[in-house]
Amino acid sequence: MKKNEVIGYDIDGRPITILELEKLVVASNENARKGNVISHKDLLVQM
To answer: What does pTM read for this prediction?
Structure first.
């Protein structure tokens, strides 16, 4: 698979490549390590 290959689509129908997904995963992991998280309960309250 190539890094620029489309592997899915976001909620708005825009294509997501392998490279973009990898960047999202890395950023999510960094945020979790830094404690930048929200509980499921708090998320539901915000909706």
So the answer is: 0.70
